[in-house]
Amino acid sequence: MKKLEVELKPCDGFFNVKKYDEKLEQASECADKLFNGTGRGSDFTGWVNLTLRDDETQMKKIIDTADRLRDKSDCMINIGIGGSYLGTKAVSDFVFPRSEGPEILYAGNSISGTDMHGLIEKIENKDVSLCVVSKSGTTTEPAIAFRILEGWMERKYGSKARERIVGITDARKGAVKSLCDEKGYDSFVIPDDIGGRYSVLTPVGLVPLAASGIDIRELMKGAADQAIVSRDLPNDGTMYAAMRNVLLDEGRTTEILAVYEEALRFMAEWWKQLFGESEGKEGRGIFPASVVFSADLHSMGQYIQEGIRNIFETVIHIEKPPFDMLIPDTGSNEDGLAYLAGKTMNYVNETAMRATMNAHRAGGVPNILINIEDRSSYSLGRLIYFFEFSCAVSGYLLGVNPFDQPGVEAYKKEMFRMLGKPGY
Ligand code: PA5
Fold first, then answer.
1. 135 in contact with ligand 1, CB cutoff 6 A
2. How far is the CA of 143 from the centre of ligand 1 (A)?
3. Is the Cβ atom of 82 under 6 angstroms away from ligand 1?
């Protein structure tokens, strides 16, 4: 099995070992609750065993639909917001190698008219397919985007637009479901027992990702292998959950996820939603932030080194990045870089990571290190399940329901009232 490993040594000196051992025991109890379905929100834990079910009929339908869309599209527009797009973008940006496929573009994750204008300009001379993802089928942002883009598709392709549109939504209710039924779009179901931020390994992510050339069987295999190792307690997932909560008890209220490749930016965005929406409630939770180093060392580095000491960092380390570049020997030292000639960029990037961890620890910031082998679908599948599992366990340790998001409604109600939506 390819590597996924949590290293807690860079937290040494920042926590009480006895308290950590106690928390780790509690984390195992929380994991048992998750597996037995006896914890809070247990009717939203369908993702726990999802990847272990060998649903070949569903997999075949996903791949057939994806192949059909892929053959006729230069790009696929994924319409969705929050859990209905972040996981897809995270995987799509992260995975290498992959086969050729249409570029995935995104819509419905903002209400910016300028963004929509830019997208329409971009697709003007392209062959396009649409994948609209909304579990509730009533979310305003994707609904507006779909109304505009469906009209664009109908003007461009006439009655054949139908063959290029797929809906991924609830089994029974919501506007996307009725539209699919009425207009005959292909559709896939988001299982009732899986919430948005835990849904990337359902058709929500699998359909657009398969269309774009990602090996979704390997993604599912990685997640399934991680689901199996997560049963053995304690494990890397419970260690991560326990350490986060021990650090929180010590006053570390912000966790910064640090990545060292631009391609991981959206993995961090997905992670922020997963942990933020799962834990931030009832006046509790660790605030999830993220940085892309080394770029952000030149903007956020100062604060992390010397600002308020209520932070800890979790660093994602890819052991074998897909490419490397040699730093050339130019025969001169005008730029002061002769000492690096013949070394590679990955060597320097890795050294920057180790040096930054040392410096931040010396500045009073504990670090957790997550080592993963590479950027394959398989490794990312493992990482996705690892985070979902540790997030659920961590939420139970905190004493919250990690599967609801009651606070998200507040802005919607006020916006609807101000927009004059009937009934608000
Ligand atoms: O995790 C969640 O539940 C949310 O982020 C939702 O995915 C998001 O609000 C979009 O909801 P829907 O898929 O119902 O349009």
1. yes
2. 12
3. yes
Residue 319, SS3 per DSSP? coil
83 Cα–ligand 1 center, Å: 5
139 CA: nearest ligand 1 atom = 15
CB 370 within 8 A of CB 4: yes
pLDDT tens by residue, the chain, 424 residues: 999 999 999 999 999 999 999 999 999 999 999 999 999 999 999 999 998 888 899 999 999 999 999 999 999 999 999 999 999 999 999 999 999 999 999 999 999 999 999 999 999 999 999 999 999 888 999 999 999 999 999 999 999 999 999 999 999 988 899 999 999 999 999 999 999 999 999 999 999 999 999 999 999 999 999 999 999 999 999 999 999 999 999 999 999 999 999 999 999 999 999 999 999 999 999 999 999 999 999 999 999 999 999 999 999 999 999 999 999 999 999 999 999 999 999 999 999 999 999 999 999 999 999 999 999 999 999 999 999 999 999 999 999 999 999 999 999 999 999 999 999 9
Quick check: is 156 catalytic?
no
Instruction: Give dist(CA 326, CA 343) in Å, integer.
Output: 6
Mutate to test the pocket of ligand 1, among 136, 177, 192 (most ligand atoms within 8 A of CB): 136
Q: Has 412 been annotated as catalytic? A: yes
> Among this protein's residues, is 317 annotated catalytic?
no
To test ligand 1's pocket by mutation, which of 84, 89, 271 has the most ligand atoms within 8 angstroms of CB?
84
